[in-house]
Write a structure and sequence with these properties.
The chain is of the alpha/beta class. It contains six helices and 13 strands. The protein has one domain (6-231): Spore Coat Polysaccharide Biosynthesis Protein SpsA, Chain A (Alpha-Beta Complex), CATH 3.90.550. The strands form four sheets. Strands 5-4-1-6-11-8-12 form a seven-stranded mixed β-sheet, with helices on both faces. This is Nucleoside-diphosphate-sugar pyrophosphorylase involved in lipopolysaccharide biosynthesis/translation initiation factor 2B, gamma/epsilon subunits.
Length: 233
Amino acid sequence: MSAITHAMVLAAGLGLRMRPITLTTPKPLVSVAGRTMLDRALDHVERAGIDDIVVNTHWLADTVVEHLAGRGEITISHEPDLLETGGGVAKALPHLGHSSFYVVNSDIIWTDGPVPALARLARMWDPNRMDALLLLQKVEGAVGYEGKGDFFLDAADVPHRRGEAPSAPYLFSGVQVLHHRLFEGAPEGKFSLNVLYDRAAQARRLFGLVHDGNWYHVGTPEALPEVERLLSP
């Protein structure tokens, strides 16, 4: 197991599908069953023993910064212009150590199985042969998800894109481990991490691990009551 000491939580999205709630509250600060989605993500990261944490901001950034003031020292990476997932992480790289780090979306919620998901990723992570390790979620059982899946996963834990297939059994959960080297030669400015996943896949350095807990996508205001019901004690 390789030590992972840094993490980034992505919190810069506009949350357009969550309007009108997100007109005044950034999506990561939407409360679900009594806790914001951003706090839930940070709880996982801190339980994994990570002290060096970056959170990116864009929409209603001051609100996010004010909220985080009560959580100890967190580095803010503000994006005056949205950089998408890849550009956002690339901008924050100087704050993410020199090797491997977690990246976690703050617009999803997950609960752990018997072993925390971040610990399972760390156990599987091998920086000598991996540039990216994605936590995958089974489409069947993904609460609030309405897509067709993103990946197939072979016996060697290598994900393959759905491509022209009508559906695939796994979706990307929004939780991952990345290596700095993945960003060598990356595009400038705004771009998606998918660009780098595909490049890592071509080099056979993209891997996947299937989540063994629950996973929830809160995409619209209408989805909130059901997820809150499932998360409530």
